[in-house]
Predict the structure.
Amino acid sequence: MDTRILIVDDDDTIRYLMKEFIETVGYRADTAEDAKAALAALDAETFEVVITDIMMPGMDGLELTEVIKTHHDVEVIVMTGYSGDYSYEEAIDKGASDFVFKPVRFEELLLRLRRVLRERRMKKELRNLAITDGLTRLYNSRHFYQQLELEAERSNRHENPLSLVLMDIDYFKQYNDRHGHLEGDKVLSSLGDAIRAGLRKTDSAYRYGGEEFTVLLPETIGDEALNAAQRIKSAIESKAFHPENGEPTHITVSVGVTQYQEGERSREFVKRADKAMFLSKKRGRNRVTFLSPDDPENEEGFCAASSPIESDQGIDAPEDP
Ligand SMILES: [Mg+2]
């Protein structure tokens, strides 16, 4: 993928020379003649770095930097003359990643640009590591709670529906006991793939606990979420696993689905999905249950209420084969 750089300067010659230089060294460069054009470009397309002049008619480069850092995920390098009224500290304070003096020495700019890009990638990798479950490559539970709050807030603000799918692997403890944890890990990893394959662009999936997964479905009503859950359940069921010391085997999940109610606490929302999942267990597993807040079963105070959800262990565990 191209690394895209946006050059912002009111001087035509500088814009032209910089664009040529940036493209010579292998990046893709676009230009904007003022802050307004720069912000329009950032709204329309994705850039990794903005290199901006400070002295420009209209909004100056420092103010532009501040606006960019508030609204866009992009690095900023600012350029200014030695005699300028602006300091390195001011630029960094507005959120700039680096600072170069005019007239710009291209070799120096290139060094700084490469460093900024390197640090940006490292930051992204670290962030991804911090929110990803290593085994399933789904998001982890910490990220789930963050996104849950965000999506609930968004749903309240825009009155958009929001649904939640919560699933738990059936008899996973028995699988682990029989085939060992390495085989169990293979199942978890494979389920991660199956869940990911069933998602739409706006959905996000999480390893919620040991053998529990959640999917957040923004702008989705309960019925649609129910369909999505059925699809994921079937995809999982149709996968054959080949544990080293056993027969080819299939894994099933018990699934709960619910829709967010305007204004409710996210904890209640998760609790209801948890109850729905528990009902699927109770009704024989390998099924999907939808639970709405006014459902009498939602009022029943059975024991699965608190988070983290109760797993298969302990729920009328099956006889040993
Ligand atoms: Mg200027």
The chain has a mean pLDDT of 91. The chain has two domains: 4-129, 141-305.
